[in-house]
Amino acid sequence: MHTPNSVQDLCDLFRAGGTFEIRGGGSKAEIGAPREAQLVSTAGLAGVIDYDPAELVLTVGAGTPLAEIQALVASENQMLAFDPFDHGPLFGRPAGAATIGGVIAAGVSGSQRLALGAARDHLLGFEAVSGRGERFIGGARVVKNVTGYDLPKVMAGSWGRLGVMTQLTLKILPAPRVRATMLVEGLDVAAAVAAMTAALRAPLEVAAAAHLPGIGTGLRLQGFGPSVDARAAQLPGHRLSETEGDAFWQAALPPADDRPLWRVHCQPSAALAIVAALPDLETRLDWGGGLIWLAGEGDVRAVAAMYGGQAMLVRAPEAMRAAIPCEHPQPAGVAALSVRVRRAFDPAGIFETGRF
Amino acid sequence: MTLCMPPPDQAVIARRAAIAAALRAIVPDGVIDEPTVLKAYESDGLTAYRQPPMLAVLPETTAQVAAILRYCQAEGVKVVPRGSGTSLSGGALPLADAVLLGMAKFNRVLEVDYDDRFAVVQPGVTNLAVTQAVEAAGFYYAPDPSSQIACSIGGNVAENSGGVHCLKYGLTTNNVLGVELVMMDGEIVRLGSRHLDPAGLDLLGLVVGSEGLLGVVTEVTVRILPKPQTAKALLLGFSTVEGAGACVAGVIAAGIIPAGMEMMDRPAIHAAEAFVRVGYPLDVDALLIVELDGPAAECDHLAAEVEAIATANGAVSCRVSTSEAERLAFWAGRKAAFPAVSRIAPDYYCMDGTIPRRRLPDVLTRISELAVQHELGVANVFHAGDGNLHPLILYDANQPGQLERAEAFGEDILRLCVEVGGVLTGEHGVGVEKRDLMPLMFNETDLAHQQRVKCAFDPDLLLNPGKVFPTLHRCAELGRMHVHGGATRFPDIPRF
Ligand SMILES: Cc1cc2nc3c(=O)[nH]c(=O)nc-3n(C[C@H](O)[C@H](O)[C@H](O)COP(=O)(O)OP(=O)(O)OC[C@H]3O[C@@H](n4cnc5c(N)ncnc54)[C@H](O)[C@@H]3O)c2cc1C
Questions:
Q1: Inter-chain contact A77–B255, Cβ cutoff 8 Å?
Q2: pLDDT tier at B4 (50, 70, 90 boundaries)?
Q3: Which CATH number fits domain A253-347: 3.30.230, 3.90.350, 3.40.50, 3.30.70?
Q4: A238 in contact with chain B, both atoms CB, cutoff 8 A
């Protein structure tokens, strides 16, 4: 494992050549095909560089633990609005290792993504070292900027295939004063999707909507007290306490065991058909039905595709990961364009580890 | 005005008639070669630059766009896409040796899905028409540039346009789910999808804001939102800009993200009031409009909070809208700020830098010093919530030297924005206008990384050349280029 401490170390390392995999906290190491690559840790690139709560902007080193950042912004009554979570527990590891660089590079967004945007919507700027062994920057440190190509968008979710981000500037938002979860019990998937759709079609700023079979259908509201009360009165279900609500949203995360785990993205109106076609899998619906976690054995990818969705293989035994690509395959033209974009940042393919 | 554009290819110009004939074979009724008609396309919203195109073509189908681009690529002919021509950065400025590709005939709303909350529209549909298509069902499209009655969604995607509501609801990029894109070689790709966060590299995120350099957008899928139950606006007058700036900071510090938070300075207030007569206070140095939306309970509660913050920061006048008509009246002056200013000066030049909010008072002071130095007037309107400034430089193009002074003044403002930690453009784009200032923010290595993206989409650099990048490197040269240590032209200016 290489542990560079500076941009210069990274430039030197990449210019010497080889095949490299960027490693934050290792919480997602078991995602993707088994592969051989030199690991490059971002542990030496950790720390808060600049936090200006009044400007809603935070700049940190890529190796900074997510938990540390969440605690820091919480201390200023702020939040990472894209609601990231730690993948470690999904793979039997303790929580706490995930780094901000890894979270952004993997595009990890939680339940609130539905209303408040994804990881990519909150990365304002970055410094990185590309596969050419060169330092470059993209974006900026202000909340509104259209100067040049929006490289932060393509770095977020690139899984370390364009370069190593060394510093990230994130948009931070005020944390809500009050969070409320309305729980509707006893709905089947069809009724749950209908209830979530009705709530999301109404002007109630529902921040998150999930259906957990056996537990219920949760609709989250947040903001200032009088507003939350007024909106809660217009939704079905009964209002959970904040602690109960937090437990509900914790339970909306994917199951932590060793069954194969798929993450399906689809139009909410397709969720019912997808779930119905895979009766043997355990399912959890989030994003109003636009995200489905499925645990167990089944041809999830084919079913998702049949209904216009996409399936990512998040967790599986090694042999299955060697045989089934983790990312949903793309049409040939888009795939070829993606390769050209990757070669633009990484001409020699030093980040092509075979993981995807 | 002098602007260095790629030298026109005389060999292409010499083949103009043959090119027109070939394009006519693709779009029989949609080719314009009459010089008098072509003149209509000679500029966009940045009217200081004018150049009629060699030819214009107005396709109606994606297949035609693909055929046009494939032909132009094969023949080495440059193409400049155009939506409604309202760009304020010269993004749609034609070239003497290029075909102007007008997207106005792509004017249909193709599909609306309220359950999954998206609309599929053609790129020539105006921004406002998207909202109009869904408003009967209680929905709207959130990004609302002031030009929304005219500008096209395709142009919005290309510029990543914003509006007064993007503080809370985001820019175009945060509200687009997918596009159909035709690349310069005629290949048609779909980027993004109808659901959230599709697999693979976020190429959609790259295309939004790429200023027509990566491909021609032929279809756009946007997210639509339920229209808030109510909205309320506050009109707050301050005797100092510092007070108004402190109020903006106080609102954010209280955890409030208003739907919009706009500021105007004294000259802008006076120009707007003279134009729309809605009762703006004339004895203040800064006016804030703070809009809150949501259920009535929320608007009432937050209006009281904002009013208290304003009072604590020395507001000398405070009005809270009590009806929809009054709320719209508060906005009328702000929304008409550009035409209002054009009544007090023959010409104005609109700037678009973003700064960290806290630097607002000193940046305004520096702008007024620069106005004295350049001997020109300036009126300031800002999207104060996100630090996006629109200084409107007042000049008279008929007075010798004034245009040049206005440009020099504008450049000084943008340098100042970057110097205090901000950026050259918050929503209008780089275009030709800020192209040569890009090195203030990005060194050669940074720019080379951006230009290689261009090469991945358009290796012959035929689509909208001369925009965004100060130097046009051939793609082969960029592949070889190594800028060791990232030497910069402006080492003294704080960078990322
Ligand atoms: C009075 C006024 C007020 C304005 N207010 C705002 C504001 O509040 N916020 C804001 O962000 N902007 C504002 N603008 C700027 C402008 O309206 C926006 O940039 C708008 O998005 C441009 O859209 P358009 O259709 O006019 O594009 P055009 O000006 O025709 O083109 C702009 C760019 O987009 C490219 N392009 C156009 N269509 C396509 C397509 N289909 N495929 C690929 N590329 C394409 C062009 O090549 C060009 O580079 C304002 C302009 C004016 C004149």
A1: yes
A2: confident
A3: 3.30.70
A4: no
